[in-house]
Amino acid sequence: MNKKGIIVVVSGFSGAGKGTLMKELLKKYDNYALSVSATTRAPRPGEVHGEHYFFVSDEEFEKLIAEDGLIEHAGYCGHYYGTPKAFVEEKLNAGKDVILEIEIQGALQIKKKYPNALLLFVTPPSIEELEKRLVGRGTESSEVIHGRMMRAKEEGQGIDEYDNIVINDDLSTCVDEMHGIIQAAHFTPARNAEFIEKIQEQLSQLK
């Protein structure tokens, strides 16, 4: 069977708990690597280069784009964000499943380039619960929360482009469900073409 890791793209509404989910998944299981994005924005207090982001200049980022050194990239609030190809390939070849936490736009770019990537969409059990979580953070104004809800309305139109939905109701259960979905994906025929070809070749020798 294929021992190489697979690309796992995780998207979801703001407030769905993606960050917490990823943190718990990596803490509980050791066969994952969280992709580190490159960005042209300045580091925030406490952020470490190579751990939270690869902080690069506009010129360095544009060079990466020109050299096809990014799996996906997008502009957001006046800055570039993207996923460096070299980092992802290194982890995949080491047998790690690489998790990319990105927006729908980037997720669909990846699906075009890497048809065998696994796309997961994280959502709370209801939109009422989503709003409750955003309000419960206590860190954003009602205008910002309204903006995030309107953004969720847009994002909701793209959910059916994903391979699986992950309903984040109980965190512990959700972590195990996500792990199960990813591990099952390793055994799909599309991700084991070489193995299938070998079996079919052996079968063709039978008289």
Count the beta strands. 9
CATH class assignment of the domain at 7-35 and 96-204: Alpha Beta
CATH fold assignment of the domain at 7-35 and 96-204: Rossmann fold
Tell me the strand order in the biggest sheet. 2-7-1-8-9
Question: In the CATH classification, which architecture of the domain at 7-35 and 96-204 applies?
Answer: 3-Layer(aba) Sandwich
The biggest sheet amounts to: 5 strands, parallel
Low-confidence stretches: none
Spell out the helices and strands N to C: EHEEEHEEHEHEHHEHH
**Outline type:** globular
Number of helices: 8
**Terminus-to-terminus distance:** 26 Å
Going by CATH, the homologous superfamily of the domain at 7-35 and 96-204 would be P-loop containing nucleotide triphosphate hydrolases
The proportion of strand residues reads 15-25%
Tell me the Rg in angstroms: 19 Å
Mean pLDDT over the residues: 91
Structural class by SSE content: alpha/beta
Helix content: 40-55%
Task: Please name the defining characteristics of this protein.
globular, Rossmann fold, 9 strands, 44% helix, 8 helices, 5-stranded parallel beta sheet, alpha/beta, 4-stranded mixed beta sheet, single chain
Structure description:
A hairpin with a 2-residue loop joins strand 5 and strand 6 (79-84). The chain contains 8 helices and 9 strands. The chain is 44% helix and 20% strand. The protein has a domain at 7-35 and 96-204: P-loop containing nucleotide triphosphate hydrolases (Rossmann fold), CATH 3.40.50.300. The mean pLDDT is 91. Helix 1 (18-28) crosses helix 7. By secondary structure, it is α/β, with parallel strands linked by helices. It has helices at 18-28, 58-66, 85-93, 104-113, 127-137, 142-155, 171-185, 193-204; strands spanning 7-12, 32-34, 38-39, 54-55, 70-76, 79-84, 97-101, 118-123, 164-167. The strands form 2 sheets. A 5-stranded parallel β-sheet has the order 2-7-1-8-9, with helices on both faces. Strands 4-3-6-5 form a 4-stranded mixed β-sheet.
